[in-house]
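Sample pair:
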Amino acid sequence: MNDLNIDKLHILFSKIPDFFFRIEEGCNTEKRGGVFGCLENDIEIKADRDLATFIHKFWSENLRDFCSIQIEGLGVDGDISKDYRLAVDPLDGSLNYKLRGRSFGLPMTTCMTLLKRQEKLTRFSDIVFAGVMDLRHPTDFWRVKMTETGKYKTYFRGIPAKTMQVDNLDIRSQILIAEMYYPSNREKICQAFANEKGWLRNPGSAAYEMALVASGQAVAFICDQQKQHELGAAYALVKGAGGVVVDWEGKDLGDQEYLFNAQTSVVVAANQTIAYQILKRLNL
């Protein structure tokens, strides 16, 4: 793969913050509030769509000949027989965006994943580049690319990233992130840690939460229904930082098919030992 195209993806990431800050008031083209999920009324849905359109325009002008693209909210575009496909979640953490004036700096991210397309089955292990940017602080940028040796290498703020170096799970002294959106996930995880002092956190952007594992701020992330358009980037980021990404049966996701809109049970962990300890609790 020509590194020039990876450079173009970095350029795209660098352009997103300026555009994002210009739409921070929803472009003032839609009224505030209204029914959640109504494009005409909700500023976070409008911002998501505006970001998607901006990213699509850049792709059309700079990357159309290189890859097809699938953007949450806009669907698929380009020649799907191209060797590469780009998966994009423009605004993950949209509720945090909507409440940004009354929240305490909760994260909002843009997440992209580039995969080498396979004829029969494109897998998580076919990811060749991924990036997650915290739109509040654009210098908080996680990126990963596949090296010539076929290994991932992850960087955070331009510095090689490494997962938390611990062997024992302790939610009193470590940040463990649990996706609390889904009732079944919330009940299962709370039950698994019911008799332990400590905290289960959920900042509200899955892409950000899983990226934190790659850079060593969080020890693990747990979800029973994680969307793959965020999970793909997380898989590569965490693997490239020395961590593991497994399903609730303990199987690495590398050979699993990557499907943009699918949901997957996952434990994203600093290492295999931590993943095992979490799975043991979940499967009691």
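The first helix runs from residue 3 to 22.
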